[in-house]
User: Which sequence fits this backbone?
């Protein structure tokens, strides 16, 4: 099973970008999405940005992840 996570591009330097995943920042390769710009959301899988994502879709996906985390915490209690 694979999991691709949306993140916000905060800076770009050549083929790499710094991407913020809700406070966790990672450097990812952006060669597969050369049109990406700072301030856009991307889907990242195994260190590669694989697709640009509309802000609304990114927010929906991130909200679902937050809900899953909340439910997992409740279940663990």
Assistant:
């Amino acid at each position: 099973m694979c999991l691709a996570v949306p993140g916000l591009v905060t800076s770009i330097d050549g083929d790499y970008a710094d991407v913020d995943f809700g406070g966790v920042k990672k450097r990812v390769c952006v060669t597969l999405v050369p049109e990406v710009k700072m301030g856009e959301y991307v889907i990242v899988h195994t260190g590669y940005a694989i697709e640009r994502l509309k802000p609304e879709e990114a927010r929906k996906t991130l909200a679902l992840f937050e809900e899953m985390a909340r439910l997992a915490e409740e279940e663990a209690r």
